[in-house]
Amino acid sequence: MLDWQNIDTVMLDMDGTLLDLHFDTYYWLHHLPQRYADIKGVSLTQAKDVIYPKLTAQKGTLNWYCLDYWQQEFDIDIVALKKEIDHKVQLLPGTEDFLNWLTTTNKRIFLVTNAHSGSLAVKQPHARLERWLHGIYLSHDYGYAKEEQGFWAALQEDIGYDAERSLMVDDNLQVLGAAQESGIGHLLAVSEPDSQRPAQHTGDFNSVAHLGLAIPATETSIW
């Protein structure tokens, strides 16, 4: 499926690609509304009526991913509430096998994520992704979400990848579309980003249920 022989740089999303998106789904749709209701002294229904429309309005923007923004919007400690359920942070099936294999190649491996630094700080002690990476790049450091072309221009200037020989792996199809528009030559979607939800349709993008399935059947093809 992937032409590993013609890939020098591998850029990996975090949530829904390496880590189970269930943590985030559960947090934003269940834990935050319940804790907001507890803290603010309102009903769960009232809490959802406050939270859900605000989340929907920011989807696809940098604010959607920004914990500082949501802390201000909801007047609540978003990071502290994430830590309350950090036991739910899990690698997706196949992630560890894939990353272990990838480190045996001569490819550069980068985490390229929309996640806020506060979210990364909650998850890293459990996931320890730095074991496999040559660098971590956050969209917040550039002021653009991965859905925007400004992000890809800034990232390219930062790490100097050859777009045609680079791979971007993501569960977000908008991000993959933006990466494609920027010239990234190899794209891969993850079709089962949330272990508790059905697989998503990935359109025209090549896809795997999890990254363990992206390991070539024979490693001779990568050299």
What would a concise description of this structure say?
By secondary structure, the chain is an alpha/beta fold. Helices cover 41% and strands 12% of the residues. The chain folds into two domains: 4-21 and 90-222, Rossmann fold (3-Layer(aba) Sandwich), CATH 3.40.50; 23-87.
Main sheet strand line-up: 3-2-1-4-5-6
Order of helices and strands: EHHHHHHEHEHEHEE
**Rg over alpha carbons:** 18 Å
- What is the helix content? 40-55%
- CATH architecture term of the largest domain: 3-Layer(aba) Sandwich
Determine the strand fraction and express it as a percent band: 5-15%
Oligomeric organization of the protein chains = single chain
CATH topology of the largest domain: Rossmann fold
Kindly report how far apart the N and C termini lie: 16 Å
Please tell me the overall pLDDT: 95
How would you sum up the major sheet?
A: 6 strands, parallel
Describe the fold and architecture.
The structure is a single chain. The chain folds into 2 domains: 4-21 and 90-222, Rossmann fold; 23-87. The chain starts with 8 loop residues before the first strand and ends in a 15-residue tail after the last strand. With 223 residues, the protein is α/β, with parallel strands linked by helices. The mean pLDDT is 95. It has a 6-stranded parallel β-sheet, covered by helices on one side. It is built from 9 helices and 6 strands; from the N terminus they run βααααααβαβαβαββ. The longest helix has 19 residues, at 22-40. α1 packs across α2. The chain is globular and about 60 Å long. It has helices spanning 22-40, 44-58, 62-65, 67-74, 78-83, 95-102, 117-127, 149-159, 173-182, and strands at residues 9-12, 108-113, 135-138, 166-170, 186-190, 207-208.
